[in-house]
Every structure is written in structure tokens, then in C-alpha cells.
Amino acid sequence: MNDRIARRMEDIKPFQVMELLARAKELEAQGQTIVHMEIGEPDFVTPQPIVEAGIAALRSGQVHYTPAAGLPALREAIANWYSSSSGITVSPERIIVTPGASGALLLALALLLNPGDTVLMADPGYPCYRYFVRLLEGKAICIPVTEESAYQFTSRHIESHWTPETRAVLVASPANPTGVLLSQNTLAALMDSVESRGGTLVVDEIYHGLVYGDKATTALALSDQTFVINSFSKYFGMTGWRLGWLVVPKSFIRAADRLAQNLFLAASTPAQHAALAAFKPEALQILETRRVEFQRRRDFLLPELRDLGFHIPIIPQGAFYIYADCSRFSADSFAFARDLLENIGVAVTPGIDFGCNAPQQHLRFAYTTSMEQLQEGLGRLQAYLN
Ligand code: PMP
């Protein structure tokens, strides 16, 4: 034990899947082919019009800090995008450009939490949420959402877990790892429930563009008191550019700006210039083609996994994940994921990475690889599991 490391670090765990990824790299170095269904980012590269805008920005010397809240033109472009895609008006002043959704999460939670405050969230859920809360000396309350409620986090969960210490509720829609999209009614009920108790709802909409049924409603359409997080990472295919945004209620604008100045100074300048091109028709057209391709992959993979014996109670409406119960094969998701990697070279994420309470008998399959690779992976699974 290194006693110079802060105590909070004892509570901050690595992703188990990283261990599997390291092993996958070793196997690949030995000449094995691995089918990657563990990766939580698009396999597509950033659309060319965005790349070109980034290169042009670098060439023309756009390498200095921007204002802390982001380039005014980008904040305006994001506001215009809400207007053209969802028909809602959001003042650009309420939009703070951040280093990824990760930066937005840190800002949002740092703006809201005092030490000892609790934040309610779904279990399974995106693991970093609880570590951000821990970092800020708050307490994450991970509430199991089960297949009985179609993995939805609802106002009933709030009613049964709210205490005087509760400050906020953090939900993702669509969610990682379940792909669950909250309906407009569910979102509205969550909002009522949180706001009537004097708390704040934080909605992570990072997968919002990647929805395969009815169009998703942004939480911004329902309340101006909600914090909304989004990012250029997933839908826009810009994970490595590290760019996202946070929409805050009007009364938080000045505090958010002050905090952003101190925490980040600003998000990446070339990335912000590149992102200006993300809302142009040329880029949006490419992104729509990709969304359709993700849907095609989901529609292919899901019934095949069910046929193999994975229990998948819902059809995920968004993101690029299928959360599958593997209890028919194993009660230990990590051991099972390791078996699949070692024996047939199929890499998936063990459900244990997303849960903090119940042991998870689930795997997360990411369809962030080509149809050919998905077919190859399924063939290997079929031969092994049968
Ligand atoms: N929220 C969710 C639900 C995610 O899955 C991720 C990335 N996997 C993030 C936030 C962080 O994304 P980024 O910082 O790349 O925008």
C-alpha cells in the first residue's frame, strides 16, 4: 500500500474489461484473430467534413484558448441544432462546451454536490458516474433496475430511495449498458418527482443521436431546470477529440463558467472548430447513414444471440449495446467473458463492470464492429456454446 495515495482511490476501481483487453492484445500479438464486441465507441472514423474543418483550424493557427464556456459560434451551433432537430429553444448562454461528456459530468456534479450528498442512479449503469460522485465526497446510491421494469429507472425508484441527503438523480437515456431509452412520460414523471423534492435531475444524453425507433425527446423539452449532458463522442464519431457539452439552468450559468475556467480553462480549440462542421448537412448525412447501419447490426445480432440462449428481455432502443443475461451458461460474468476470449477469441464486456450491488450475470455486446465481424463472432459462439 502506498499511503501517499489519497484514501478515495481505494474506492475507485478499474474497468474489468481492461484486463480482458490487455489479454486480447497479447493473443493478437501471438497471431490470433479476436472479434471485438467489447468496445464502447463507434468503429467508424470521424466524418471527413469534420476532419477537414479540424485540419483547417490547425493550419490557420486556431491553437489558443477559447473562452472557458466554449467558442460562441459552437454554443450557437449547438443551440441551433436543438432547434432544428427537436424544435426547442435553448439559449446558447446555457450551453457550456466541455472536454467530453466526462468533463460535463464533472462540472454538473461539482456544481450540485456538497460533501455527504447522495445521488440516485441506476444499477447497472455507466460506472464512472459513481466514481465522479465519490471524488466529490458525495455518495452514489445505485438502485437495481431489473428486467421486470424493462431496466427503466422510474419515479418509483426515486420515491423509495429519496432521503434528506439526496441532492440529485442522474440518468442516462439511452443508457449504457442496457440501451434503454426513457419515454417522454417516464422522463416527465422523473422530473416532477425530483423537482417537487427540491432536487435536480441530470440527464446524460450522450447516445441521443443513436436511437432506432421513435425519435428521442431531449429532457430540455420538458424542463428548464434539468442539467443535460451530451457529447461529440458517440453519434458524431469524435471520441478521441474529447469534446462534449453541458446545458445548465439559467441560474447556474455564471457558476458553471467560473468552474469551467478553473477546472479546464477551455475545451480543445481545434476540436471545437472541427465540431462546427458536425452540424452541416454533409456531416449529418454521413451520420444518418451510420445510425441506420448500427440499427441493421442490432437487428441482426439480437435475435441471433437469443437463439444461442442468451436471455435478452428487451429490445434496446438506442446506443450500440445489447445487455444479455448469460446465466444459462455461467453465473460469473467475468469468468465467462474470459472463457470466451481464451477459447474462441470473442471479446465482450462483463456485466460486473456496470453493477455496484448485485453480482451481474450479464454480458454487454457492443455492435461497434462490421457485420462480417459480428457474423464471425456469432459463428464462434455457436460452435462453442452448442
Ligand atoms: N456517459 C456515458 C453513458 C458513456 O457511455 C460515456 C463513454 N463511454 C460517457 C458518458 C463519456 O463520454 P465522453 O467523455 O467520451 O464524451
- What's the story with the biggest beta sheet? 7 strands, mixed
Oligomer category: single chain
Level-1 CATH class name of the largest domain:
Alpha Beta
User: Can you list the ligands bound to this structure?
Assistant: 4'-deoxy-4'-aminopyridoxal-5'-phosphate
Helix content: 40-55%
| First-residue to last-residue Cα separation | 45 Å
Q: CATH topology of the largest domain, what is it called?
A: Aspartate Aminotransferase, domain 2
Q: Residue ranges: pLDDT <50 for 5 or more in a row?
A: none
Looking at CATH, the homologous superfamily of the largest domain is Type I PLP-dependent aspartate aminotransferase-like (Major domain)
Beta fraction of the residues? 5-15%
Secondary-structure element order, as H and E?
Answer: HEHHEHEHEHEHEEEHHHEHEEEH
Mean pLDDT: 95
Task: State the main characteristics.
single chain; 386 residues; alpha/beta; Aspartate Aminotransferase, domain 1; Aspartate Aminotransferase, domain 2; seven-stranded mixed β-sheet; three-stranded antiparallel β-sheet; binds 4'-deoxy-4'-aminopyridoxal-5'-phosphate; pyridoxal phosphate binding
